[in-house]
Amino acid sequence: MTTEPSGRPPKVAVAHYCEGAGHATRMLAVVEELEAAGYDTVIAGGGPGVKFVEANGYTEYEPPDVDFVGDYQDGNLLAVLRNSAPAVYERVDRYRAWFDREVPALLVTDDISAAVAATLHGQRFVYVSHDPSGFYDTAVERAGAWVRNRLARRGAEQFLLPKVWDGAPTIPGAVEIPPMAQLATGEPADVDVLVVPSAFSVDPDELADRLEARGRSVTLVGGDDWETQESLQPFVAGADLVVCSGYSTVMECAVAGTACVVVPATSEQRGVVDALADTPGFYAADSIADVEALLDDAAPPEPRANGAARVAEVAATYLPEPDGGARADATGD
Questions:
Q1: What is the 3-state secondary structure (H, E, C) of the chain?
Q2: Could you tell me the pTM of the whole model?
Q3: Which of 190, 193, 166 has its CA nearest to residue 178?
Q4: Cis bond upstream, residue 320 (ω within 30)
Q5: Residue 158 pLDDT more than 80?
Q6: Are the beta carbons of 67 and 84 closer than 8 angstroms?
Q7: Averaged pLDDT, 272-280
């Protein structure tokens, strides 16, 4: 591969999954690292994360959304076959058209639809996922995770697994990397308890009221007084305690070194909680009373390295230098 005739570096496509905003924020961290290294980027994904992408000054391509979690947990396997399966087919097809328009030198993605599209299209890609089959209890969900990981592993140049916990569960064939978070810019915000309700099993407004009744000052992401931010990282870094459900916020807490209470609502989130059981600084809660019981005893973890930088480093091994210099890829070819 070479630089474009204009002298600009090759283009890196970054695609995030569309369920929840956390996929967008973690892949924005990769965009930041790639652009800091001098590469051009384009973004795709859609879903709730679009507003965060736009808040950071980017415009992204939005293929059709897929809602596996909603179809399966709020419906059944038949709902997945009726709704999600056709949506995945269309999403893959739209991604292939996007590759034709953008002609990226490399794709970096955490979206299995983008990975399948890249494999069919002959598009080189690096895949990022934290979704081991060991997270799940049901045979259907375990099989689904196994198939997703198998498909991605077969086509990807490398499969990267960002982990906060040590040991099992893991993904065979994946390279374990540190947790991922957006770059911390500016001073940390002055926050006591930060509540980030991506898919809470409890009412976040009631949770905030109960914690404030205990004398704590609560910042509720998405609440009446909240404005969309370019990044949550200054708030996570400045908080005394974070209460969340999604793994992206868990990773942000790990990078920032902030105590974190996880209130799981989905089977994947329950798998994360189980994986974190012996990890200092991370706590599980199933109810508001559980969160209250942890208020005074939650101790912060030691800050971790930011795995987003590692993702960008791996991606760069499959690209020439931004100034046009040659670079051997990670296979040594």
A1: CCCCCCCCCCEEEEECCCCCCHHHHHHHHHHHHHHHCCCEEEEECCHHHHHHHHHCCCCCECCCCCCHHHHHHCCCHHHHHHHHHHHHHHHHHHHHHHHHHHCCCEEEECCHHHHHHHHHHCCCEEEECCCCHHHCCCHHHHHHHHHHHHHHHHHCCEEEEECCCCCCCCCCCCEEECCCCCCCCCCCCCEEEEEECCCCCCCHHHHHHHHHHCCCCEEECCCCCCCCCCCCHHHHHHEEEEEECCHHHHHHHHHHCCCEEECCCCHHHHHHHHHCCCCCCEEECCCHHHHHHHCCCCCCCCCCCCHHHHHHHHHHCCCCCCCCCCCCCCCCC
A2: 0.90
A3: 166
A4: no
A5: yes
A6: yes
A7: 97
Least confident residue range of 76-85, 138-147, 171-180, 290-299: 76-85
Amino acid identity of 189? A
Tokens for 271, please give them.
């798998």
Q: Which two tokens stand for residue 177?
A: 């990397």
Q: What are the pLDDT digits (tens) for 175-214?
A: 999 999 998 777 899 999 999 998 788 999 999 999 999 9
Above 90 in pLDDT, residue 264?
yes
What confidence tens digit (pLDDT) does each residue in 39-92 have? 999 999 999 899 999 999 999 999 988 755 554 455 455 555 555 667 888 999
Strand 106-109 relative to strand 40-44: parallel, antiparallel, unpaired? unpaired
Contacts of residues 57-66 at CB distance under 8 Å and 24 or more positions apart, as own/partner, are 58/28, 58/31, 61/98, 63/18, 63/90, 63/91, 63/94, 63/95, 63/98, 63/113, 64/90, 64/91, 64/94, 65/18, 65/91, 66/18, 66/19, 66/91, 66/113
